[in-house]
Amino acid sequence: MLTDADELFTEMVERGVFPDFYTLTTLIRCRCKDRNMNKELSLLLSSWAGCMIAGGVTPDSISYNTLINGFVREDHMDKAFHWMNRMEKEGLLPDIITYNVVMNGFCRHQEAELVLRKMIKKGIDPGRSAYTALIN
User: What start and end residues bound the annotated signal peptide (predicted)?
Assistant: First the structure.
């Protein structure tokens, strides 16, 4: 299924049809569900980002959260944290979902408290789900 989606994406670009926000987020979600975040990922993301910009599509928190979640699911916390920081650099503030996804990943690595502190410092109320993640 993923190969077909990748091929369709390539065909769209070759024909000058720029995928919209929903298409690109769906492709990212497919990549995450397939647990195949590393395979040619740098090239793929560069290509998608280029198409988003060329087509006037701006990624939002849903796109970033989907991507971050994919890396967390595969225990690539360095990449998840990189994209969380890039999200901020692009002017999008990570939300409760972003922080909870990253915190859940760091819980497996005993570093969740760092994420909680950053979350509070940014003025985001952790809520029950964040504290539950810490306890579990």
Answer: none
Tens-place pLDDT, residues 91-113: 888 998 998 888 888 777 667 77
The Cα 69–Cα 127 span in angstroms is: 19
The CA-to-CA distance between both ends of the chain, in Å, stands at: 35
Question: Going by C-beta distance under 8 Å and a sequence separation of 6 or more, which residues neighbour residue 59?
Answer: 21, 24, 25, 49, 52, 90, 92
**Which among 56, 32, 88, 33 is positioned nearest to 45, based on CA atoms?**
32
Q: What single-letter DSSP state applies at residue 108? A: T
Q: Is 59 helix (H, G, I), strand (E, B) or coil?
A: coil
Query: 46 or 113: which carries more pLDDT confidence?
Result: 113
